[in-house]
Amino acid sequence: MMKKEILNHAKQCGEAECCGFVIDNKIYMPCNNISATPTKTFEISPDDWIKAEEKGEITAVVHSHPDGEPILSEADQIYQQFTGLDWWLLCDNQIHKFRYIKPLLGREFQHGKIDCLTIVRDAYMLAGIELPDYERQDDWWHNGQNLYLDLLPQNGFVQVDAQELQEGDIIIICLGSSTPNHAAIYIGNQQILHHCPNRLSKRDMYGGFWMDYTHSIWRHKKWQKFGFMAILNNMAISSI
């Protein structure tokens, strides 16, 4: 029912971006787009925010990209940080749900909660590919487990040759272990995005140590190039 209401609202708005709220995860409240450029951006009035909060808990912000890609723009991701909410995006009659995450750059490390797997999951979520989370104990690579090599094929990844490396590929690295235990995302220009223990998540040059200790490179079967722009959009908000 809620999906139908959102689709109908977008249809009524024509070439303009529709916008609204999900309340209590079950009610859709359509809002007027008061942006000066409604075919390119959206803005919800303070009055509508107040009305929504009076109805219940706002659990998601909804808007559409009538002629755009199914990813959050840089501006979308900036405002999502302000709201601290999930954002739902309607594009090509499909609702794409983007959970709220902290920016990919500058994260504090906490194994099992905010680590190299987390940054891969969050980046791929922005690209439209939701990967499962797994409980993982510290030092699993010293306890006979091989999580990355076990889980990547199960979740739609295929191994590719290093000569075919492209943006969005996952690079698996042996970090202080003979078992591959660290993941990085290739972001072009010989750079990777990753999160090492006891460091903030960051960009690094892909060469030297990281290249020498690379185990393998993996690509998701459903990867699409526009997904990489969503990752770049997120990294851009940390530079503002």
From TrEMBL:
Residues 83-221 form the NlpC/P60 domain. GO terms for biological process: proteolysis. Belongs to the peptidase C40 family. Keywords: Hydrolase, Metal-binding, Metalloprotease, Protease, Thiol protease, Zinc. It comes from the Bacteria. This is Phage tail protein. The keyword Flavoprotein does not apply. One of its GO terms (molecular function) is cysteine-type peptidase activity.
